[in-house]
Write a structure and sequence with these properties.
heterodimer; A: 686 residues; B: 169 residues; OB fold (Dihydrolipoamide Acetyltransferase, E2P); five-stranded mixed sheet; 3 helices; 11% helix
């Protein structure tokens, strides 16, 4: 497969997801012509690209789909549910064609036959679709011809992509009546001439019955390879305007005098418009719209993003991490040297590295929206499969997460949604009986909370019954029958390995993996999961994630001769205490300012030999809804830690979430206080 | 056996000579400050900063059932490229001294000793007799890293450190 084909595959899968998104929106608003237009355009790109890069099967198939939407565009067909279903399935079909390595060709062909028949049925009008009787000719006439100015200025390299710009001009001229002006002046001398560079450009005055989009469609694959300006000059055929002829004389290298042409066109239009005030208003609006279009077009071509291979981003992030570490070294050195000039340079460099770090980070962030389309689709498909009516709503989809987190969170969230559809939401009949609206609702809500991102999935289903869960857990031997559990603790049992409440195994969620897998996957990316449920009211599952995986704000502390970092996000308060007070405490509980705190004495827990200092620091860290102390020798200060993995050999030491290299080149260990507390908890301590 | 040659790097642990194929040695480092990782077994000395990455350091002497390493002038870290469970990992081992790099023909390698040997034969690829009549044990370092077992035969283990290392796991 050559490079271009690969690129097309990338682009095509993007297009398919855009298609899905547009379809989901269209489903909510079936009469929206703009959405139909955008669907049509996506298919057009798929078709064109497919044909161009040798994916004829895709090109042929999308052509049929495109026909269907073309009829909708021409108002000869109305969007129906069947049509949406076909298109959804077509999106899957196209994806499988894109991914086909030859092994499934037969199955794909069969599927295509079926889909084709359904499309034909719609096109013939004998399915459920309502055919609007051949739309008024009047409307077509009303559309009429318009005149446009089109500037086509290919960049030098256009022919190297195999594009012949002359063919584009031919196609453009083919849309209606046209006058073409050619510009030769930038052709260089013979010495400077490169045979496959393009030096010529064109201006075209075009009168066509097609709309502006059709003109732009001519250039759909060369948008990035040439400068295209499309400007509407007037309604009606400009060539028939009186006095316009001298202005439309083509003379090479002298551009059309757009100002005069527009002025004349405006005067003439104005005269015509004056006849009916209403018409004038309409026309003015058109004009405005044209301008807006150009503006929008120009804007799109200038600030739209670029695609970058994710390895490049990874290596950028690595370099930034190294820069931060080196910066810390420079700061340390500058502090020691006490040289004013050096300090000044170190400070301004630090300022720059900070900004660079923030910018680089923002590049790796992806909005959750990226996942939402997939989820919407998942909920839609699953709910149909189980015959439930479910509405899916996503709030805060603009919240951004590190791309590695997005990758890590996708599967757990999908599993949670599956559970909600399968177990959470009741059938329409059950819901009616319970006095609820027949359509269930699943809400995904994302928001920032301090240095965390919270994603909550809420359903308004039947909720969880703590007693039932308890019984199940006892049955499965997960807890002993005489354990006293609060309702919250009972509900938390669903996170235990081997727990699955579903009475019957369905192919949606009962696949043997349960919430324990969700919990593990989330904690793999340093996140936490919690559940809250009200029987009869619904369930909310909340995932909290750190904003990024690779750099944390931490507190640098020291025990004996080793540095440790505790994430600032978990630290509540810090007290200095006499060692005496700790040594004399009973059962690892200390009284500070009248409050009893349990604590862990890390020197002991880590089996660190040597004498402790007289005064030690006790750091209160948040643990679930409590505050628990960890005692260290002293506190160095805040530190931006670039998190590095400790590696496979230390995989059993999971109380450390990683290590970080300090400014002086030594290594500090990053403490996961949650795991520290879990590891050293002896019952009755807390 | 075919007549290929291989390059090995030899080093000293206590009184004995060992060698590792040079293709698995990335670097030889002077001793630097090692950050101890609490709760890890004793033979895992901690981690160091190797050009921006975190490198685990192993006291290979303890792994072999010898007393823990004492830091001396010649003590160095050999940075190795080892395969653990199909994954390539970098790790440093502390050795008493590095001796030399030498080339040998594969047909000069003697099979690992069987019964009566001090070390378990599964960790030894073979034995080579040096010019000065000293024997060098060619290590299968991947196997050494892939197990929590001690390399020395259990029966000959008498140092308390070795037992400690064994029980920690």
């Amino acid at each position: 497969m050559d490079n271009f084909q690969k690129k097309f595959l990338d682009e095509a899968s993007d297009l398919v997801s855009q298609l899905e998104q547009a379809l989901l929106t269209l489903e909510q608003d079936m009469d929206n012509p703009e959405l139909v237009d955008s669907i049509f355009r996506i298919m057009h790109s798929l078709k064109g690209g497919g044909g161009m890069f040798g994916f004829d099967n895709i090109s042929n198939y999308t052509h049929r789909l495109e026909n269907m939407y073309d009829l909708v565009r021409q108002k000869k067909l109305k969007v129906t549910r069947e049509m949406l279903d076909i298109t959804f399935e077509s999106a899957d079909h196209i994806t499988s064609m894109l991914n086909d390595d030859g092994s499934k060709t037969d199955a794909i062909k069969k599927n295509e036959e079926i889909l084709n028949k359904r499309i034909e049925a719609i096109l013939d009008g004998d399915s459920m679709s309502v055919v609007v009787t051949a739309t008024s000719d009047a409307e077509d006439k009303g559309h009429g011809a318009s005149s446009y100015y089109v500037k086509v200025k290919p960049y030098e390299h256009i022919q190297r992509n195999g594009t012949n710009p002359l063919l584009l001009i031919d196609e453009l001229v083919g849309l209606g009546k046209a006058k073409v002006n050619i510009f030769y002046s930038s052709i260089p001398d013979f010495e400077g001439f490169v045979y496959d560079d393009t030096y010529i450009w064109w201006e075209v005055i075009l009168c066509t019955e097609q709309d502006e989009d059709a003109i732009k469609d001519v250039f759909i694959f060369v948008e990035d390879d040439c400068e295209i300006v499309v400007k509407k000059l007037a309604d009606g055929d400009i060539f028939t305007f009186q006095g316009i002829e001298p202005l439309l004389q083509c003379s090479h290298d002298f551009p059309f005098d757009l100002e005069k042409i527009t002025k004349l066109a405006d005067t003439i239009s104005a005269l015509e418009k004056a006849k009916t005030a209403a018409a004038a208003q309409e026309a003015a609006k058109e004009e405005n719209k044209g301008d807006e279009h150009i503006k929008k077009f120009a804007k799109e071509s200038s600030i739209s993003g670029i695609r970058v291979a994710s390895e490049k981003i990874d290596s950028l992030m690595n370099l930034v991490s190294e820069l931060i570490t080196t910066q810390a070294g420079l700061n340390l050195y500058a502090d020691r040297e006490k040289n004013a000039e050096l300090t000044r340079i170190a400070e301004s460099l630090e300022n720059i590295s900070r900004q660079l770090r923030d910018t680089a980070f923002s590049i790796t962030l992806i909005p959750i929206d990226y996942l939402v389309t997939r989820f919407r689709r998942l909920v839609r498909d699953l709910s149909r499969e189980v015959g439930k009516e479910i509405e899916f709503e996503a709030k805060g989809a603009e919240v951004e997460l590190d791309k590695s987190l997005i990758e890590g969170i996708s599967e757990p969230l999908m599993h949670i949604l599956r559970n909600s559809v399968d177990h959470g939401i009741e059938t329409a009949a059950e819901r009616k009986a319970a006095g609820k609206p027949p359509t269930g609702k699943i809400t995904l809500q994302a928001y920032y909370s301090g240095s965390q991102v919270v994603i909550a999935v809420t359903d308004d289903g039947q909720g969880m019954n703590p007693d039932k869960i308890k019984r199940k857990a006892i049955e499965k031997g997960l807890i002993s029958p005489d354990v006293q559990l609060s309702d919250k603790e009972a509900v938390d049992l669903i996170f235990m390995p081997g727990f699955s409440t579903s009475e019957k195994v369905t192919n949606i969620s009962g696949r043997g993996v349960g919430m324990d897998v969700v919990k593990r996957k989330v904690s793999d990316i340093r996140g936490t999961v919690s559940v809250a449920s009200e029987p009869g009211e619904g369930t909310t599952i909340t995932i909290s994630l750190p904003l990024t995986l690779s750099i944390i704000d931490g507190m640098l502390v020291r025990i004996a001769d080793v540095d440790y970092i505790i994430p600032l996000s978990v630290i509540d308060t810090i007290f200095a205490v006499e060692h005496e007070k700790i040594a004399s405490s009973f059962q690892n509980v200390i009284n500070i300012e009248g409050v009893q705190y349990p604590f862990y004495y890390l020197r002991d827990e880590f089996a660190i030999p040597g004498d402790p200092p007289e005064r030690e620091e006790i750091i209160m860290v948040k643990y679930e809804d409590r505050k628990i102390g960890v005692v260290v020798d002293n506190i160095t200060g805040e530190y931006q830690a670039v998190l590095k993995p400790l590696g496979k050999l230390y995989r059993s030491q999971d109380i450390f979430s990683g290590a970080s290299i300090l400014g002086d080149g030594t290594v500090a260990l990053v403490l996961d206080t949650h795991k520290v507390i879990n590891k050293f908890t002896r019952y009755n301590d807390i | 056996m075919d007549n290929e040659t291989g390059s090995y790097i030899s080093f000293v642990l206590g009184e004995e000579y060992f060698a590792i194929n040079v293709t698995q040695v990335l670097n030889i480092l002077q001793l630097v400050q090692i950050t101890k990782v609490p709760t890890a077994p004793d033979y895992m000395k901690g981690v160091i900063n190797l050009r921006g990455t975190v490198l685990p350091i192993i006291d290979i002497r303890m792994k072999f059932g010898m007393p823990p390493i004492e830091y001396k002038r010649d003590t160095v870290i050999l940075v190795l490229n080892v395969e653990i469970d199909g994954e390539t990992v970098n790790a440093g081992i502390l050795v008493d001294a590095v001796k030399e790099v030498f080339e040998i023909n594969t047909d000069e390698i003697l099979p690992p000793p069987g019964i009566g040997s001090k070390y378990k034969s599964k960790f030894i690829d073979g034995i080579y007799k040096m010019n000065d009549d000293k024997f060098v044990m060619l290590l299968d370092i991947d196997k050494v890293f892939s197990t929590d077992e001690l390399v020395m035969m259990a029966a000959t283990t008498d140092t308390t450190e070795a037992k400690q290392a064994e029980t920690v796991e």
